[in-house]
Amino acid sequence: MMSSWKDNIRSVVPYTPGEQPNQPHMIKLNTNENPYPPAPEVKSVLDGFDPDKLRLYPDPKAQALVDALAQYYHVGADQVFVGVGSDDVLSIAFLTFFNSDKPIFFPDITYSFYPVWADVYKIPYETKPLGEHFEIHAEDYAAPNGGVIFPNPNAPTSRYEDLSVVEEIIKANRDSVVIVDEAYIDFAGPSALSLVPKYDNLLVVQTFSKSRSMAGMRIGYAIGQPELIKAMNDVHYSINSYTMSRLAIELGVCAVKSEDYFKQCIEKIKATRTWTVEQLKDLGFEFAAEPSANFIFAAHPKYPAEALFTALRKANIYVRYFNTGRISNYLRITVGTDEEMHRLIEFLKTYKN
Ligand code: PMP
User: Fold this and answer.
1) How far apart are CA 239 and CA 233, in angstroms?
2) What SS3 state is found at 65?
């Protein structure tokens, strides 16, 4: 038989992002965005941005943004890598560090992009089952592997693991890189960033998409010891030099510097989360773990999640539903404004009553 070009295609099953509906008066609680605008200083910089600057390529090193992050987190500029959202940073990290014949490890219930990157880069992987309360068992990760990745807090469960669990995994894996995906850490407990000086195999990845209200600008970053960051930059410059646009660099610098606003937004979202969790509890919802991100993972013993998801959608309230295994009766609900959460609770109070 003649060979076909189709035999040479890299065929993959892609990741499915949450939908981006655009209905008037919708309540959008399906992709863990921040309900508040970016810092007012970001608006001023955007308003004053001179389009003539767009004639020129941006700084391939995005040095201004790297420096702002280094200063904010008290690390060296050679310890910071920036990318087009943390998805870009994570994808480069997979390509750079997960290059072994041994499988990489991640939890069985986690960010559904991990198996997709593993497949596209042909990285073998093995999943480790979470416990009854969606907890990570550190001892599961103490076996030969080609790398480890997990989010903290985990998605979509919203469970935060204590730093002692994180450290146990890093310690048990001194011969592989451990990536801690901290997309939601600002809504939870202490970050693994404090462990970076101790462990040369730790990479911490964070994003501007959630706590800094800039999902649409696409900025993510990784912090680790200089050797890890250099390896990522070598791979990055072997694919695309100019990833960070001029606008992303300028607005990113400004967002990092607007610390007061950033902290106020986080406190507001945490307070709204506490209120919503109490209301959901009163309505009979259950949580396998304490919600610790800017989203809540909840199940109702009487109302199947899929039917609830559909009813909410009809009412123009968008949440996320994953029809898979142990989590098929859960809804993932992003924490919106107080008003949005009131409307959600009002709807749930009348549901099937
Ligand atoms: N990690 C986790 C666990 C996430 O849920 C997300 C959001 N989908 C990301 C990374 C990527 O976010 P972004 O690319 O917007 O930084």
Assistant:
1) 10
2) helix
Residue 38 DSSP one-character state = P
Whether 215 is in the pocket of ligand 1, judged by its Cβ within 6 Å, is: yes
Q: Give the separation between CA 34 and CA 165, rounded to whole angstroms.
A: 28
Q: What is the pLDDT of residue 353?
A: 60
What is the distance in A from the centroid of ligand 1 to the CA of 249?
19
- What Å distances lie between residue 120 and 10, 146, 218, CA to CA? 8, 16, 22
How far is the CA of 93 from the CAs of 102, 151, 245, 292, in angstroms? 17, 14, 20, 25
Q: Which atom of ligand 1 is nearest to the CA of 220?
A: 16
Beta strand segments in 57-185, E: 80-83, 104-107, 125-128, 148-151, 178-181
pLDDT tens for each residue of 300-334: 999 999 999 999 999 999 999 999 999 999 999 99
Instruction: Show Cβ contacts of residue 288 under 8 Å, excluding neighbours closer than 6 positions.
Output: 132, 133, 134, 157, 159, 297, 299, 330
